[in-house]
Design brief:
The strands form three sheets. Strands 1, 2, 3, 4, 5, 20, 21 and 22 form an eight-stranded mixed sheet that branches. Strands 6, 13, 14, 15, 16, 17, 18 and 19 form an eight-stranded mixed sheet that branches. The chain has a six-stranded mixed sheet with strand order 7-8-9-10-12-11. A hairpin with a 2-residue loop joins strand 21 and strand 22. 30% of the residues lie in helices and 22% in strands. The protein is α/β, with parallel strands linked by helices. It has three domains: 132 residues, Urease, subunit C, domain 1, CATH 2.30.40.10; 292 residues, TIM Barrel (Alpha-Beta Barrel); 114 residues, Diaminopimelate Epimerase, Chain A, domain 1, CATH 3.10.310.70.
Length: 557
């Protein structure tokens, strides 16, 4: 048994209340709808009863109502459906909240429009204060070229820092470049690239590790800022039906924020934290302490987040052969394989799971090779090593996931966002190994699904729709993109429930609706399991329930 699972088991045994009294009256009963359990032994039910934050009964309405007591809360679903509480297996908690507080550049059609947005923002921002935004994507612009600092001319009163939609490139103005001391002589850092114009001058675009040249000169967000961003994100996640998230890259402040929100009774979400090793002293302390569970089980610290490469949209994803639309470029390995091996081995030796960002086929192969060495040298039992994104995989590497027990943690809406230009990057042959959900499942892998919010919307229903249709939200292309990789609704739902729970070692205590498991539910107004796929986009979350308590309730229409 792995150390994370041992800690979780200890917590469950210490807190489980079911069985302390014979046939206790239920705290909560859900009836009058349809329950999809994601439990093959009992796929559907008519009612659920809850006691002490855990599921007491799953079955018929009459039997559930027999558990009613004087203090039981009864919710008549009125035909609505109940799912296991949805889990986002890859998101960025504080980053998602921050995104909601800055310039939203998603879908903006040109750099000129973004310049106008910055100019408008400057009217309400003191001179000299940094202006931030996120979401631009040159692939949606005429010419599909990176912008430059010249496209932000006239904004010099403030330093401007605009992250690309994937977070793996930033665009800054002339003032920011001057503050950061960026000149023609500034070298590209290891694992990063400064985009330069035809004269060799920095153009204002910084890819992957080159972003650090800018961030080092920016003011650090305060604790209060980060608490506010986390509160915003949690409220939004609950509204979207989420009861849990895997926070991909948590530092010491992120953990403190979660602890504070718990003390303030505002942590209405289960957070599975992947530690960032960038703060070496903090990381070393966490390794010595080992995995832990805090905040009544709502904060689990049991994983480590590493990076192998960059992103496909900014051509930073590491490829085995050059980009089809940029023949001199094979992307970037942002960390050396030996570094990845050393940290991964250290982590598993101390009982931590390892989750490595890898998008290009060379990045994925590097992660698989590192994991194979770690499994051989450290021999951890049931480590459930993960590759985050796993977007482009060489065909010969696909069977290695199941063979090594490596989890491809994927985000369905990445495929439908990237499909207009992904084949330009990869060509007609490599694209066959991209976003290959069906192929991975057929070869024995389990795929937890997430959003990578704020890169994509955190809406899990949009993720389920993308997985089932391989279409954008306008229904294009007809029949779906690379339709051989589509999933069924049941398979997509597993990705956001039991398989996401499996990826955090908690599938035995949540992720399906079974007696003894946590009473986490997402209630929808439409039956996505039986209606046509396009109805998923018209479906709304009615309630989100965490440990038997309603943490989100939609207002009546």
């Amino acid at each position: 048994m792995t150390r994370p699972r041992m800690v979780l088991l200890t917590l469950l045994l210490a807190t489980c209340t079911i069985g302390r009294a014979a046939n206790p009256p239920a705290d909560l009963i859900l009836t009058g709808g349809r329950v999809y359990t994601v439990n093959p032994a009992q796929p559907t039910a008519d009612a659920v009863a809850v006691f002490g934050g855990r599921i007491l009964f799953v079955g018929s309405a009459d039997s559930a109502l027999s558990l009613r007591g004087p203090a039981t809360r009864l919710i008549d679903l009125g035909g609505e459906i109940v799912l296991p509480g949805l889990i986002d297996a890859h998101t960025h908690l504080i980053g998602s909240g921050k995104f909601l507080s800055q310039l939203d550049l998603i879908g903006i059609q040109s750099p000129q429009q973004i310049r106008q947005m910055v100019l408008e923002k400057q009217k309400s921002v003191p001179s000299g204060k940094w202006i931030e935004g996120r979401g631009w994507d040159q692939n949606g612009w005429k010419g599909k070229q990176f912008p430059s600092w010249r496209d932000l001319q006239g904004t010099d009163a403030n330093p401007v820092y605009l992250r690309r939609v994937d977070g793996h490139a930033v665009w800054i103005n002339k003032t920011a470049m001057q503050i950061c001391g960026i000149t023609r002589a500034t070298p590209d850092p290891a694992g990063g690239r400064i985009v330069r114009d035809s004269a060799g001058e920095p153009a204002g675009i910084f890819i992957d590790n080159a972003e650090d040249l800018i961030v080092a000169h920016m003011p650090k967000p305060s604790r209060e800022d980060q608490i506010a961003w986390a509160k915003t994100a949690i409220a939004e996640f609950n509204r979207l039906g989420l009861v849990g998230v895997h926070d991909a890259g948590a530092d010491s402040m992120a953990l403190e924020v979660c602890r504070q929100l718990y003390r303030d009774t505002l942590l209405t979400l289960r957070v599975y934290a992947m530690l960032s090793p960038l703060d070496s002293s903090f990381f070393a302390r966490q390794m010595q302490q080992g995995p832990s569970i805090e905040a009544d089980g709502r904060l689990v610290i049991a994983a480590v987040k590493l990076y192998a490469d960059g992103a496909l949209g900014s051509r930073g994803a590491a490829l085995l052969a050059p980009y089809s639309d940029d023949p001199g470029n094979q992307g970037l390995l942002v960390n050396r394989p030996e570094y990845l091996y050393d940290v991964a081995k250290l982590a598993v030796t101390h009982g931590f799971q390892v989750c490595t960002h890898a998008i290009g086929d060379a990045g994925v192969r590097t992660a698989l090779d590192v994991y194979e060495r770690v499994l051989r040298d450290a021999a951890p039992p049931d480590p459930r090593l993960r590759i985050e994104h796993s977007q482009v995989i060489a065909p010969s590497d696909i069977p290695r996931f199941a063979a090594l027990g490596v989890i491809p943690s994927m985000q369905p809406t990445h495929a439908t966002s990237d499909m207009p230009w992904a084949e330009d990057r990869l060509g007609p042959e490599r694209i066959k190994g991209a976003y290959a959900w069906r192929t991975l499942l057929n070869q024995g892998a389990r795929i937890p699904f997430g959003s990578d919010s704020p890169v994509e919307s955190a809406n899990p229903l949009w993720g389920i729709y993308a997985a089932v249709t391989r279409q954008d939200r306008q229904g294009s292309p007809a029949g779906g993109w690379q339709p051989q990789e589509r999933l069924t609704v049941a398979e997509a739902l597993r990705g956001f429930t039991i398989d996401a729970a499996y990826a955090e070692f908690s599938d035995w205590m949540r992720g399906s609706i079974e007696v003894g498991k946590a009473a986490d539910f997402t209630i929808l107004d439409k039956d996505i399991c039986t209606l046509p796929a396009d109805s998923i986009l018209a479906t709304h979350v009615v309630s989100t329930i965490l440990a038997g308590k309603v943490v989100y309730q939609a207002t009546a229409k």
